[in-house]
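Ticket #4471: structure output looks truncated?

Reporter: J.K.
Steps to reproduce: submitted the chain below (200 residues) through the standard prediction queue, then opened the result file.
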Amino acid sequence: MSVASKTQLFRKICAEAQVCTICPDLADKTAVLSELNGSLDPKVFFVGEAPSRAGADRTRRPFTGDKSGENLQILFDSIELSRDDVFLTSAVMCSPRSATDANRKPTRAEVKNCSRYLRQLLDLIDPHVVATLGAVGLDSLKLIEPHAFTLKEHAGMILEWNGRILVPLYHPSPLVIASQRGLDTQLAHFRTLKKVLDNC
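Returned output as attached by the reporter:
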């Protein structure tokens, strides 16, 4: 497929996602999906949880504008990975909010509803390496091709999924890093990801 055709199809997916209103609680939100998500020929295709209120929902660029984005940049820098060489998206592409307008975890129904766009992106971009950021991102892949991987057992491991290399990673949120899944652990897991990329 030519670059022009790929770009045209990507823009079509973006346009469809941005007018989607299938999730009742997200009907007034707009999907964070555009050229700002990254390269259509990436070294790694990242799948996170959902855009945050203060971050991607505001900036329209995944993992920017909040502490999770800052932490992810530290992890990228540790293996000399540029945002220009990755594609970043989420299990749910709109920003889920609680009754107090705070970030909340996406529901299973919301992940299921958004899986059609995730599937289309994976089919179009066809990445060799997929890395998930957090349990929601990892679980969302089950709707594309079933797997039995869990973050607890498989974080930082090199796996095979759907004809691709999969590396499950912890989410770079401050809450996760403050827990036992700290920055040192995440840096080690990113070094594993670098080994994969060096061998591709």
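Triage note (M.O.): checked the attachment and the full token line is present. The helical segments are 3-18, 56-59, 67-78, 108-125, 135-140, 151-154, 174-178, 183-199.
Status: closed, working as intended.
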